[in-house]
Amino acid sequence: MVAYEEADVVVIGSGMGGLAAARTIAQFGGKRVLVLEQHYTLGGMTHEFSRAGRYQFGTGLHYISANAGPFLEFMTDGRVQLSPLPDDYDVLHFPGFDFAVPATKERFRARLAERFPAEADAIDGFFRTTRRAMSGLAARNVLSSFPAGVRKMGSPVVERLFPSTYRSLKDQVSRSVRDPRLRAVLTARWGLYGTPPASSAFGYHAAVPLTFFMEGTAHPVGGPKELSRIILEILERYGVLLRPRQRVNEIVVERGKVTGVDVEDTATGRRYRVRTNTVVSAAGVRNTYALIGRSRELADLPGEPSAVMLFLGMDRSPAAFGIRGENHWFMPDLDDHDGFHRPPGEGTLYVSFASLNNPAARFHTVEVLELVDPGVVGQWRGIPEEERPESYHKLKDDLTRRLIARLEERWPGFREAIAFAELATPLSFETYQHSVLGSFYGLAATPQRLRSPRAGCRTPVKGLFVAGQDAWGSGVVGALAGGLMAANAVLRPRQLGTMWRAVRSGGTLPDPATPWHGYLRVAAIETLTPTVRRIRLEALDTGAMPFSFTAGQYLKADLPVAVEPIERSYSICSGPGENGFAEIAVKHEPDGLGSTFLHRELAVGQALRVSGPHGEFTCDPAHDLTAGTLLLIAGGVGITPLMSVLAAAADAGHTGRIVLLASFRTEDEVAFRPEIEALRDRLPGLQVSIFVTARKGRIGVDVLRAYIEDVYRVHLCGPASMMQDLIGHLTELRVPRAAIHTEAFVSGRSKETRREKAHAIALAAAAAGVTEFTVGMAGGAPSFTCHPGQSVLDAANAAGVPLPQSCGEGACGTCRVRVLSGAYETDTRGMFSGDELAAGWRLACQTLPTEDLMIIP
């Protein structure tokens, strides 16, 4: 029996085109959008994969314009961060000479005129024609989003107005350029859109290498996957439902209209139909027409090339060979116009060095691409990967050796630096990209495509639209533009105005109350003690920091200690008045994955993905200049957030009494000694007592008694056992509990341990037939349900029950609740005294019920 679901709009494919269509239709059309992706990973050709536990490889995005442009700015809400390639970003190697392509069209034109002075007039004319051809392509593509009648009347007009757009690249260049070397330079880099000069329409060449890339190029910081990570996060905000591992078997058409899609969940084998009257296919024109049984209508379109791609992991930086991060193109001859007349491995090669252009990369990688006829692997097509014969593997091995030999010829010693090599063939792209015959760039960029009514975002079926590369042009940004064209065809006129205004403005501004997410550069690393390092983080452009913070807050950092990063939290020790950087101090724990990486492997210049600021362990001394005594108590590296509080007090001109009690196990472990001495000169009311516990013992009740007179606020940070004792001592000395603010160290395994506990609780409940627990609220507040394995805080949030909260991970102590009855698993940390624990005080974010609970917030 077939199950049925409903959606306003179904998007097939989660590449940039599909995601762009999904966002705009959901955001500006108010539609319920379902995205179906056949791959196990969302994001299309921004997908990355890892090998050997260390190397990260991109699959389709190698570089983009240095100016992200309004489309990408819109899709990422301005959050995309780019690292520029060298100014000479494409180096072309021809037999007998090289040519480096510089950023900006003006400098490119000047360099061409310098190298080919006899062709100066032809060069000027060529660039004038380029502008015209680019305009023609844009006009043709926008026209393709209009209804059939408008397209039929307008298409001949566009071709008459912009004839160069429709000529072949070879033809257009030959009309004015005589020097064969200049022709070779101008027609090179056709690999950016995949169709050789003899076949490609000049409009595509004008658009991609000669316009889009001419203002300089860049690589996404964090890798291509960073784009899809940001975009997918935004889509969830607009309620877009995203499902990987979903194979669409048919687009259901009745009486010329879309009525649904038939889908198979390849993870479970479940088959179902989604009823809808609007489908946007980002799976390519050929796949789309196959899904409606009309592939024959594309017979007039020439076939597309595929590619072989060699992924190399290096045991040393490519910079050792004089490479700075620029791309290298190897052309076998000056007249490579048909592209595929040579055996695989001997044609035009494109070589990129993503790890040199991504400051967040931990290990060095190289990607080598050659466009090929998909027929080179035709004899093995249809054979499952694990059953392909030795002849297929021999082809891959031979190709790998041939490609590496060409790199070795250019850079002697390169072969010995290779630690890992893997070759992808057209069959690989066919499998993972689900493209027809492994097509790398979608439909061939030919004049036939420009003239075809089938090559665009409109189809003959009402309610069926095409997004992605086939709706605009090649590459990730071309696919994104194709998604916007599909939305342009789906949305109503009044919605379109709002959409295009938002696109031009660059997306939605972030909520100032939301923590910032992005990459910061490591500007300096300093050893404070044998076990503590101070790390300075600054903006990638070395300008002002992208966020401000309050003294006492912390940052979360994603640390690349394995294939998947781990998240760790570190308090900020610099003052909030400094807007050029933020500093954290990290103690090395012998078994700590995060601290070991930060102490042994982190280097100046590397970028870390960071979010922040977080936390409610805050203090603004500027608001309490004469309120009484501010008591700061630290244990070990727990002094870190308190240094920020002291810096803030000094910047505010605080003259009142501040007491710092800091304990360390040994004299060598005393951190920030010079900084504390400097702060004494700026804070006349500062009293400091350093306790070396190996000599003096811990801070006890008698020590505290001397400092609590007139205390209005206490900030306490350190190991859990120390904090538990001190909370008890302060309570005994009648310091109001509301005046005591605490922050605990977050164990590196805290989340993992909580997940393990949650999993065990869920399994035990399932075995007992229990599906939910009830959490009652004393005092008449409504109760709420909690699924086995869910924390009290998560359950309350899901039920819309307000509980105080901040970090969600047990560091800040904000989500205090008192458990009156019921059993649970928890982590008490150092947020409570012994008496408070005995009274049932717990952290809601750490408490996992194992039966019904009764609590008091």
Let me know the average pLDDT.
91
Number of strands: 39
Strand content: 15-25%
Quick one: biggest sheet?
Answer: 7 strands, mixed
Q: How are the strands of the biggest sheet laid out side by side?
A: 9-8-17-18-19-16-20
> How far from one another are the termini?
48 Å
Outline the low-pLDDT stretches: none
Helix content, binned percent: 25-40%
Count the helices. How many? 26
Indicate the overall shape: globular
| Rg over C-alpha atoms, rounded to the nearest angstrom | 31 Å
Structural class of the helices, strands and pairings? alpha/beta
Walk me through this protein's architecture.
The protein is of the alpha/beta class. The protein has a 7-stranded mixed beta sheet. A 6-stranded antiparallel beta sheet has the order 25-24-27-22-23-26, with helices on one face. The longest helix is centred in the N-terminal third of the chain and has 24 residues, at 120-143.
List the helices and strands and how they pair.
Layout: E1 3-6, E2 9-12, H1 16-29, E3 33-36, E4 48-51, E5 55-58, E6 64-65, H2 69-75, E7 82-84, E8 88-94, E9 97-102, H3 105-115, H4 120-143, H5 148-161, H6 163-166, H7 169-174, H8 180-187, H9 202-212, E10 217-220, H10 225-237, E11 241-243, E12 246-254, E13 257-265, E14 271-275, E15 279-281, H11 285-291, E16 306-314, E17 327-330, E18 349-352, H12 354-357, E19 365-372, H13 390-410, E20 418-424, H14 426-432, H15 447-451, E21 464-466, H16 475-490, H17 493-505, E22 516-529, E23 532-538, E24 554-559, E25 566-571, E26 582-587, H18 593-600, E27 607-614, E28 629-635, H19 640-651, E29 658-664, H20 673-682, E30 686-692, H21 693-696, H22 701-705, E31 711-718, H23 720-732, E32 740-744, H24 750-767, E33 773-777, E34 784-786, H25 792-799, E35 816-821, E36 824-825, H26 834-838, E37 841-843, E38 848-849, E39 853-856
Parallel strand pairs: 1-14, 2-3, 2-15, 3-11, 8-17, 15-21, 28-29, 28-31, 29-30, 31-32, 33-39
Antiparallel strand pairs: 4-5, 6-10, 7-10, 8-9, 12-13, 13-14, 16-19, 16-20, 17-18, 18-19, 22-23, 22-27, 23-26, 24-25, 24-27, 33-34, 35-37, 35-39, 36-38
